[in-house]
Amino acid sequence: MKTLIIGGTGTVGTQVVKYMLQAKQPIRLLTTSVHKAARLPVYVDPYVANLDEPETLTKAFVGIDKVFLLNPQGHTEVEQAINAVNAAQKAGVSKIVYQSIHRVRQGAHIPHFQTKIAIEEAIMASGLNYTFVCPNNFYQNDFWFKDAVSAYGIYPQPYGEAGLSRVDVRDIAEAAVKALFNSEYDGLSIPLAGPEALTGEDTAAILSEELGFKVNYGGNDLAAWAAQAKLILPAWIVDDWVQMYQFFQEKGLVATASDLQLLTHVLGRAPRSYAAFVREYAPVFQPESVTV
After folding, report:
1. For 214, phi and psi rounded to 5 degrees?
2. CB 254 within 8 Å of CB 164
3. Is the distance from CB of 176 to CB of 272 less than 8 angstroms?
4. Residue pair 214/208 in contact by the 8 Å Cβ criterion
């Protein structure tokens, strides 16, 4: 039987697919796009369906034993996930691994944290066997800021000085795949975090050290950040993220020793560091005139 990957064409999902293929596990990938389906790796079974249209999901779950669920932030996020959970129940799926957020209940006032909590509760109430994988802020989010870093020497993500235990997306994917096939993690929330709590200034300092030119932290002015962000993102997302960054600035989101102990056990090694991430992807952040 196959594993159904929902959300398999995004930042995390593509890495989940990669680890599944490396493990030689048969997978089906649900996508809303015929064009994306046509571009999937040859060993992936594509299925075009829509989480907003539950009638399209029934056949997608035929022959499915396990499900990885990652549905994007959106106005129907909870309903989409519940549609997937209902289809999984009807199909007799043995396990669902859902991507939530690290220590999500600490930020329960943040809209997209609220949706993750609602989905977790729906999965727990469903009677399905489950594991939640719960990542902190992604290192790979910094690819969005590569132009600010390379052209202006500014790191603009305004997460402040309280500290974030940021994480490499590849660690998230590897942990998710291990959770799918290891009953040891049934019923658990696995924290996905990096080995150190980083401030905005720490991040800029690491970028400076690893890239060989000065990078400054852009600061904590959320009104200024929101004004710029609304030029390229929907206002409702920016307003949500302002609440998230305010929470990060005031409280941080820092992994405990027990969080890191569990994650190290799941991975079989320490999680990747931010410095190692920047070192590996240094060419992405270099000015165009610099040859690396």
Report:
1. -70, 125
2. yes
3. no
4. yes
pTM above 0.90, yes or no: yes
- Please state the domain extents for the chain: 2-137+168-192
- Report the SS3 class of residue 36: helix
Which helix (H) or strand (E) is 21 found in, with range?
helix 11-22
User: E-assigned strands of 142-274?
Assistant: 154-155, 189-192, 216-217
Q: Which structure tokens are listed for 5?
A: 């990957």
Whether 28 and 47 have beta carbons less than 8 Å apart is answered as yes
* Topology, domain 2-137+168-192: Rossmann fold (3.40.50)
Kindly report the CA angle at 253 between 252 and 259, in degrees rounded to 5?
A: 145
CA angle 248, 251, 252 (to 5 degrees): 50
Could you list the pLDDT tens digit for every one of the 292 residues in the chain?
899 999 998 999 999 999 999 999 999 999 988 888 888 888 899 999 999 999 999 999 999 999 999 998 999 999 999 999 999 999 999 999 999 999 999 999 999 999 999 999 999 999 999 999 999 999 999 999 999 999 999 999 999 999 999 999 999 999 999 999 999 999 999 999 999 999 999 999 999 999 999 999 999 999 999 999 999 999 999 999 999 999 999 999 999 999 999 999 999 999 999 999 999 999 999 997 554 4
Name the nearest CA neighbour of 96 among 29, 1, 23, 3.
3
